[in-house]
Amino acid sequence: MNKKIIAMSAMMVAAVSGIAQVDSTATKLDQVLISADSKFELTRKDSGKPVIKITRADIEAQSAASLADLLNQYAGIEMNGARSNAGQNLGYFVRGGSTRQVAFLIDGAQVSDASNISNEFDIRLVDLNQIEEIEILKGAASTLYGANASTAVINIKLRKSPVTGVRVTVASFIGTNKSVEQANNGPDEFTNSVQLQGTAKNGLTYGVGFNHQATNGGLSAAEAADGASPNESDDFNRVNLLGRIGYDNRENFKISSYLSFDEYTAEFDDFTLVDANNETYSRQVRWGN
């Protein structure tokens, strides 16, 4: 009996060994470069901090409604207000740090909003269709980016030109913006985007983009009393324009410059959750390299 058990065990070990040899093929992964951890590109293995990199393919696959909705899907990040009505004011919480302890960069340059009390950047200004990729650096980086980078740095990289040829992207979304208690009587949310980027044979790179989002009718942050008619909706309207021009010889020289215009209007109710006709208006014009 013992001889049979030993023989069967030997056969099982040999089978497992054979399977292990068959499945021992290696898959080579693409190298991932990051620039938020230092002001120079590093491979992820050389970075001493946890980094999340969100590519354009990831953005399109997740079909998020906004930048806040996209960031809210990653571990350790809470975008307070991302699940509310369009245009809702937002609070950012990363690794226990609040809004004023998270630094935002656009193409490596730190951005802020002087109209906010703590000078934090308002990500409602940025449309997802403008973005090529996002780097999220978790952990303190105050040495590089100042006191606002106590818990995280989020680096947003805008759309860039393809290596060769021309790329045109057109996207349109139509939907409703009503609660289940309201009648569904037609579309009231519209998002449209047109992007064009290209590279000429002489190395000239260029790109233009237009994005527009409008939400009219439907949701209100303040809930109406039982039996009363629905409160007036809190509308949201945003326009984004982006232009980029540069030169790249694909060897040892590259230069690029962009100009962006971002503007939105958002209606909101009183902070006591009483229906009101308040409105927030914000506009930023940025130039960068």
UniProtKB/TrEMBL annotation:
- What is its membrane topology? Multi-pass membrane protein
Q: Name one GO biological process term.
A: siderophore transmembrane transport
* GO molecular function (one): siderophore uptake transmembrane transporter activity
What keywords would UniProt list here? Answer: Cell outer membrane, Membrane, Receptor, Signal, Transmembrane, Transmembrane beta strand, Transport
Signal peptide segment: 1-22
- Pfam families reported in the protein's UniProt record: Plug
What SUPFAM superfamilies does the entry give? Porins
Q: Name one GO cellular component term.
A: cell outer membrane
User: Major place of localization?
Assistant: membrane
Domain TonB-dependent receptor plug per the UniProt entry, residue ranges = 45-152
Q: Where in the cell is it found?
A: Cell outer membrane
Which family does the record assign? Belongs to the TonB-dependent receptor family.
The name of this protein is: Outer membrane vitamin B12 receptor BtuB
